[in-house]
Amino acid sequence: MGLTDRQIPSDKLPQCWSDDVRMNALFAPFRIKSANPESWDMKMKFWSDLVRQWCRYKTDPMVSAADVKSAFQRKGRTAACIEIVIEEMYRGGNLSPISKYVQILHNGPESLLHWSARMAFRPAVFAVSTVLSLLPVRQQLDNDGLPKASIESTQRFVLESVVKVISIPFMEPNFKQTSKI
């Protein structure tokens, strides 16, 4: 029913998936948020929830806007708002760049010096990021005056919540062994 790679069963799709009028609105580009914040938030919630559900279903935390567009085609159409959804999920801390995980894998365990430096600067980083998050985001607009994402469609991210879910089976045996010690 419109899903290609690692399809989610149709009974797991939202009920509105079969409603043409509703889906036309959800597949349309985002309008400026200040024009109708409730509608903008509802559309963002719909797509970000669907991305999370899809990643959990396929047990793969890696995602890009192009992946989502390909997976959630409906009646020959792709959603025109997915880049903004992925970008907002990244800004909200739900997605991390793959480079974060590559860095962890290549650097191995942190040294004491690196850890203590990170801990010392953590309050300053928190303060700066908090102030920056309160500043209004100047959104880029396309030629039609619609919001435009600043990420590439093929840029890949890791969905943190799915990493946690799929890592539990690997970690449980270790938790049982350490509790015996």
Describe this structure in words.
With 181 residues, this protein is mostly helical. It has a domain at 10-98 and 139-166: Arc Repressor Mutant, subunit A (Orthogonal Bundle), CATH 1.10.10. It has seven helices and five strands. The chain has helices spanning 20-27, 37-57, 65-71, 82-91, 98-107, 112-134, 160-180; strands at 62-63, 95-97, 140-141, 147-148, 157-159. The strands form two sheets. A three-stranded antiparallel β-sheet has the order 1-5-2. It has a two-stranded antiparallel sheet with strand order 3-4. The radius of gyration is 19 Å and the shape is globular.
Secondary structure layout:
Elements: H1 20-27, H2 37-57, E1 62-63, H3 65-71, H4 82-91, E2 95-97, H5 98-107, H6 112-134, E3 140-141, E4 147-148, E5 157-159, H7 160-180
Antiparallel strand pairs: 1-5, 2-5, 3-4
Helix pairs in contact: 3-4
Summarize the entry for a quick read.
It holds the Pfam family WHD_CHMP7_1st. With 181 residues, the chain is mostly helical. The protein has a domain at 10-98 and 139-166: Arc Repressor Mutant, subunit A (Orthogonal Bundle).
Sheet/helix structural class: mainly alpha
Strand-and-helix sequence, N→C? HHEHHEHHEEEH
Rg, rounded, reads 19 Å
CATH superfamily of the domain at 10-98 and 139-166: "Winged helix" DNA-binding domain. Chain C. Domain 1
CATH class of the domain at 10-98 and 139-166: Mainly Alpha
Number of strands: 5
CATH topology of the domain at 10-98 and 139-166: Arc Repressor Mutant, subunit A
β-sheet strand percentage: 5-15%
- The DSSP helix count reads 7
Flag low-confidence runs.
1-5
Q: Level of helix content?
A: 55-70%
> What do the pLDDT scores average to?
79
Q: Roughly how many Å apart are the termini?
A: 51 Å
